[in-house]
Here is the input.
Amino acid sequence: MTPAALIMLVLTVVIVWGGLVATTVALRTLRTPDAAEAPAAKAPAAAAPSASDS
Here is the structure.
């Protein structure tokens, strides 16, 4: 393999695995909201009658 190909290979591997590691660390360290802090779920609105209903 040429040196340029090896550099691109290493760069790509570092980006992919670095993103995986960063995501794992972020998911482990970020605080998740409690049920009391979570926004209340809205009830679905009643569907408006369509023209085919009449």
